[in-house]
Amino acid sequence: FSLLVRRMASLHLGDFVTALRDGTEIERLAHAGQNVQQLTWAQTINAMVRLRRGELGQARLDLAEASIHAAEAQEQVARCAVDGLRAQLLLRRGERARAAELVGPVLLTLRRAKLAVPGILVCFRALLEVLWELQQGEEQTALARHLAADLPPLVQRLGRYARANVIARPAAARWQGLLHEQMGDETAALRC
């Protein structure tokens, strides 16, 4: 358990080297114990770390494995996280239309999920980053413009989650601030 806590702390503090090292160990232990749910999350978080480090090829492989295990475990929130991270990967590879196609199902799962479900912060972060990036591009598709309308309610939902989960408060403040700034309210943005 302490390995999981240290990994999540390292991840949220930006210490990706430690997070990846711990994630590799968690993955090994999950394989040994045949814990499909733990294996799914270990690979999902490893992929998130690798995306942040720019290791797109390895992130793709981690997501492919995590996707198989999420389906096996019938873990909807893990599936949400995997698909959100896959959308991020596609965006980084310049495949905006394919990324936008993944957003709808991820958004639906996130809307239906109970806010107390572990791992949901990964879904929020991945989806918000994808929606933000899709609305920033010059080549906005009709789908991307439609999906951008989902950004404010999603940030609001993240805020509700953050009220009960301290670890989510920095993400909630960041996204609320970005929305205020986008609407031209710099005073409100600075308060976040």
How would you portray this structure in words?
The protein is mainly α and about 190 residues long. About 80% of the residues lie in helices and about 0% in strands. It has helices at about 1-15, 15-35, 35-55, 55-75, 75-90, 95-110, 120-135, 140-150, 150-165, 170-180, 185-190. Helix 1 runs antiparallel to helix 2, helix 5 (about 75-90) runs parallel beside helix 7 and helix 9 runs antiparallel to helix 10. The longest helix has 18 residues, at about 15-35. The chain is globular, with a radius of gyration of 16 Å. The relative contact order is 0.08. The model has no long low-confidence stretch (mean pLDDT about 85).
Concise overview:
Helix content is 82%, strand content 0%. It is an all-alpha fold and 192 residues long. The longest helix is centred in the first third of the chain and has 18 residues, at 16-33.
Give me some keywords for this one:
mainly alpha; 0% strand
Rounded mean pLDDT is 87
Strand content: under 5%
Q: What is the chains' assembly state?
A: single chain
The radius of gyration is 16 Å
Count of individual beta strands: 0
In helices, the fraction of residues equals over 70%
Low-confidence runs: none
For the record, give the distance between the C-alpha atoms at the N and C termini, rounded to a whole number.
32 Å
Q: What is the global morphology?
A: globular
Query: In terms of structural class, how would the helical and strand content be classed?
Result: mainly alpha
Largest sheet: none
Total DSSP helices: 11
Series of H and E elements: HHHHHHHHHHH
